[in-house]
Amino acid sequence: MPVKIRLARRGRKKQPYYHIVVADARAPRDGRFIEQIGSYNPMTKPASIEIDRDRAYEWLKDGAQPTDTVRAILRFTGVLYKKHLMRGVAKGALTQEEADAKLESWIADKDAKVNARKEEAKADKAAHHAMVAGAVPAVKAPKEVVVEDTHVRKEQLTLAEELELKGKAEAEASAAPTEDAAVKAETPVAESTDTPEAEPAKKETVAETVESPAAEVAEKVEEVAEKAEAVVEETAAVVEETTEAVVEETTAAVEETTEAVVEETEAAVETVVESEPVEAAVEAVEAQAAEAKEDAAEVAEGDK
Asked: I need a surface site. Which of 80, 181, 188, 211 has the fewest CB within 10 A?
């Protein structure tokens, strides 16, 4: 009898949970079963699994075949790992005590991870409920900020040092206008201001600078016009030469064709003239044939 380890659905609509059962492969999914070895609830976060590892191992050892989902559950709970260790014990690779110790450490690590995930899920759920209820979330403590050396030094300044710095700054500010005035007094007036005589000279230079680009543009335009005229003349000469050559070729072809046509017509006339005696002979033969018919008609009438 083929035996399967599979899930049997229980629960209400849209709220399922499953029993891990050992059943005949021919039985319905939710029908008769041989033994229940655990339960599986996918609606929790994380999914809750309860299973009898020893009974699951015994059924696997006897040849029961798990479905894909149950195989994943057995791998997650360590049943397949136990089967692997027991195979090593059977081959003598390790003792039973070593296998049990490895299995217990593996299960402890797995349970720790599952419990951590459960705690995270609880914290997320509590935070969500607090947000929905409108409670103010707890503010995390700010991280310590490392202050730069410059700020520390400024805080460590004494009142006397600050007063000294302010006095130095005021002295520098008062000395700065006097230095600017001295510099202005030393600079000559001729360099700073422009004389009235220099203004016409500036205007002339500006006019020259404006006229020079215009003159260059006019020269370029004239050059382009000359080049265009030369190109037009060359094209006109080429067109005349080509037209003369085409006219000569066409006249020569017409003359040749007319001469050939005249020769052909003359030959045709000669053949017609030569064929006139033949027509006379044909007429004579036709006359003889008519006479022969008349004679034959007369002889036929005489016989009657």
From this structure: 188
Residues of the chain with pLDDT > 70, as a percent, come to 69
* CB count in 10 Å sphere of residue 23: 21
**Residue 12: strand, helix, or coil:** strand
Third-level CATH fold of 3-133:
S16 Ribosomal Protein; Chain: A; (3.30.1320)
Position 53 confidence tier, pLDDT thresholds 50, 70, 90: very high
| 8 A C-beta contact, residue 95 and residue 89 | yes
Task: Name the H helices within 35-136.
Answer: 53-62, 68-77, 79-91, 96-133
Instruction: Please answer whether residues 83 and 58 qualify as being in contact, where contact means their C-beta atoms are separated by less than 8 angstroms.
Output: no
Question: What pLDDT shows up at residue 196?
Answer: 47
Q: Quickly list H helices, 136-197.
A: 149-156, 159-186, 189-192
Residue in this structure with the two tokens 């002295």, named with its chain if needed:
171
159 pLDDT higher than 70: no
Report d(CA 54, CA 81) in Å as an integer.
12
User: Tokens 């404006």 correspond to what residue?
Assistant: 210
Q: What tokens appear for 273 in the block?
A: 């003239």
Are 91 and 67 within 8 A, CB to CB?
no
- Establish how many alpha carbons lie within 13 A of residue 144's alpha carbon, considering only the half-sphere containing its beta carbon: 1
